[in-house]
Specification:
- The structure holds 2 protein chains of 2 kinds.
- By secondary structure, chain A is α/β, with parallel strands linked by helices.
- Chain A has one domain: Rossmann fold, CATH 3.40.50.300.
- Chain A starts with a strand and ends with a strand.
- By secondary structure, chain B is mainly alpha-helical.
- The radius of gyration of chain B is 20 Å and the shape is globular.
- The two termini of chain B are about 15 Å apart.
- Classes of the chains: A alpha/beta, B mainly alpha.
- The interface between A and B is medium-sized, with 35 and 25 residues.
């Protein structure tokens, strides 16, 4: 059972005297699918990189806690152990070589390997499962460079699933996908969260974010503006203040409909 | 290109071909001798013409060809995997030029003749010095781009210094020595050369092969490799140090032998499903095979002036590489 909680306290990232991330507090609980929204340059990617342990915050700290070892500082956790718990899906990850889908997905098992060890039974099972849930079983021998954008993105998500992480941090996983593949990716992430993992994804599609995420975090200029249920975050006032748009927002039973109407700034 | 061949099948084919080529290589040469009997005599410590030719001349030459081919092939695959670029070769780091400059210094000052270990020792020192300078220039937490720039800069400096050494060569004879040495050769090498190259080569193989999972993960990019639990900086420097030690040891005993590190990984990549880790193993075997074959070819020319093996590998390698680029252009463009 996945029980890891990620807590970031007072995170700040300072670059050239600019506070790119300014005193941010975020919590990710098991079973949550949290959307990170905000305009371009708001600091979404930087925040995700800090949470993923790829960039050290200039102030504040990120802790991981679960029932096995309560509250470890992310920076103090050995790289391999961190990678076993926490996976990061970068924005626009393009494989350098024309690998087979199966091998690409297998790379996600890296945190569980010893440097010279062979593939274990568990590795094979995890890869098989990842291919299955992402509907890629028939694609396993395809070359990744011949895949469509949607198929490639799904393969990369399968790579993340293969590592059986308890926390997934995804940077714009549905950017540049058609609606069908966007829905597919969101469903997969939501399912993973339902099984007890925590998912934190930077998103630009507000309607899809509202439809799938249990919680939304809205950031602007590196600060958290709102954090809560989608209906409470995606208010016309917030959209106007943060995105600078006037939008039509309607809360319905099956989600929130947002139609941007015009720029107001 | 046909790619559905298993890794075991590929490596066993290469190993069998390498063994076959080695047998041919031992039987190739000017002296007409019984090789098997000669080797038996050699290992039993008996003196005979066959023992001397097979044991003292052909065997060390063959072993060196295998060691150097293996190291150059593997380093090439490691470098291409590290830079995620099929056009990279160990020369990018400047290490081979540094090793060459170290060796040429001993030829220039004439100390190479005083004892056999001066030249290889200086070459290895040159290689390590170059890596150290790259490290200083680029910094520990450097990006790949900074490394390439530092490597290219160091390489240019070393080539310039080699030109200076040639320019001011004390005699025509020294100049000829330097030029011939730079062409790369396996002739007149003995077991002392094996004993200096082998330990360093084995160290470099271990350093490179132990990073094969890192190279695989690096296919996804630097951030992904880190998020998969690798300490990119440490892994990278282990690889670079391994490549430097290996290439330094090779240049030290054979001079500069080009194109193996570039062509072999490029040729074998489709057969290992483009996986960088496995490519190192395949390229090691392929490099050894190519160099043994090239050495057999060199010995077919019975002339007063030896055809240098580095000339052969470049002559085969360059057009072949051009062909490969033309063939795969659509895939990389």
């Amino acid at each position: 059972m996945m029980t890891t909680t990620l807590i970031a306290r007072n995170i700040s990232v300072i670059r050239d005297n600019n506070r790119i991330i300014d005193n941010v507090d975020v919590q990710l609980l098991p079973g949550e699918f949290v959307g990170l929204i905000g305009p371009n340059g708001a600091g979404k990617s930087s925040l995700l990189r800090v949470l993923a342990g790829l960039h050290k915050a200039d102030e504040g700290q990120v802790t991981l806690g679960n029932n096995k070892h309560p509250d470890v500082l992310l920076q103090q956790l050995p790289d391999r152990e961190r990678a076993q718990l926490l996976a990061y899906l970068p924005q626009q990850e393009t494989p350098a070589w024309p690998l087979q889908v199966e091998h690409l997905v297998g790379l996600g098992r890296a945190p569980w390997h010893t440097p010279m060890g062979r593939k274990s039974e568990r590795d094979a099972q995890a890869i098989e499962r990842a291919l299955q849930i992402t509907d890629l079983t028939d694609f396993r021998h395809r070359i990744v460079t011949t895949l469509s954008g949607g198929e490639l993105q799904r393969s990369l998500l399968a790579r993340v699933f293969a590592g059986e992480p308890e926390i997934i941090l995804a940077d714009e996983p549905i950017a540049a996908l058609d609606p069908y593949h966007q829905l597919h990716m969101m469903e997969l992430l939501a399912e993973h969260a339902q099984q007890g993992a925590a998912v934190f994804a930077a998103l630009h599609d507000l309607s899809l974010a509202a439809r799938f995420c249990s919680r939304l975090v809205l950031i602007h200029h590196g600060k958290i503006v709102a954090d809560g249920q989608p209906v409470n975050v995606l208010t016309t006032e917030n959209l106007q203040q943060v995105y600078g748009i006037s939008a039509y927002v309607e809360c319905r039973e099956d989600g929130v409909v947002i139609i941007p109407r015009k720029r107001v700034i | 290109m046909k790619t559905n061949i298993s890794f075991t099948a590929l490596t066993s084919t290469l190993v069998i071909a390498l063994i076959a080529a080695s047998v041919v290589a031992l039987n190739t040469g000017l002296a007409d001798i019984e090789v098997v009997a000669g080797l038996q005599d050699f290992f039993n410590g008996e003196q005979s013409l066959a023992a001397n030719v097979a044991g003292q001349i052909r065997l060390p030459r063959l072993i060196l060809a295998i060691i150097i081919g293996t190291t150059l092939g593997m380093s090439g695959a490691a470098m291409q995997g590290l830079l995620r670029n099929p056009l990279a070769d160990p020369g990018v780091l400047g290490v081979s030029s540094g090793a060459a400059f170290g060796a040429i210094c001993t030829l220039y000052f004439g100390i190479a003749a005083s004892a056999w270990y001066w030249l290889p020792g200086a070459a290895i020192a040159g290689a390590l010095f170059t890596l150290f300078m790259v490290y200083l220039l680029a910094g520990l937490h450097s990006s790949m781009l900074a490394l390439i720039l530092a490597g290219t800069a160091m390489s240019s400096i070393m080539v310039a210094l080699i030109a200076v050494a040639l320019n001011f060569a004390p005699s025509l004879y020294a100049m000829q020595e330097i030029v011939f040495w730079m062409l790369g050769s396996l002739a007149n090498r003995h077991f002392d050369h094996v004993s200096i190259a082998l330990p360093l080569a084995v160290i470099s193989w271990i350093m490179m092969l132990s990073r094969s999972r890192f190279l695989d993960a690096l296919s996804l990019g630097e951030d992904s490799a880190r998020s998969l639990g690798f300490n990119n900086q440490r892994e990278r420097w282990v690889l670079l140090l391994g490549i430097s030690i290996g290439v330094g040891a090779c240049v030290a005993v054979s001079g500069a032998i080009g194109f193996i590190g570039l062509v072999i990984p490029h040729l074998l990549r489709p057969f290992v499903g483009y996986r960088p880790g496995r490519l190192m193993v395949a390229s090691a075997l392929g490099g050894a095979l190519l160099l043994v074959l090239a050495d057999i070819l060199v010995r077919q020319f019975d002339s007063a002036r030896e055809l240098k093996i580095g000339v052969v590998t470049s002559l085969i390698g360059a057009p072949f590489f051009l062909l490969l680029i033309l063939k795969t252009r659509s895939r990389w463009a």
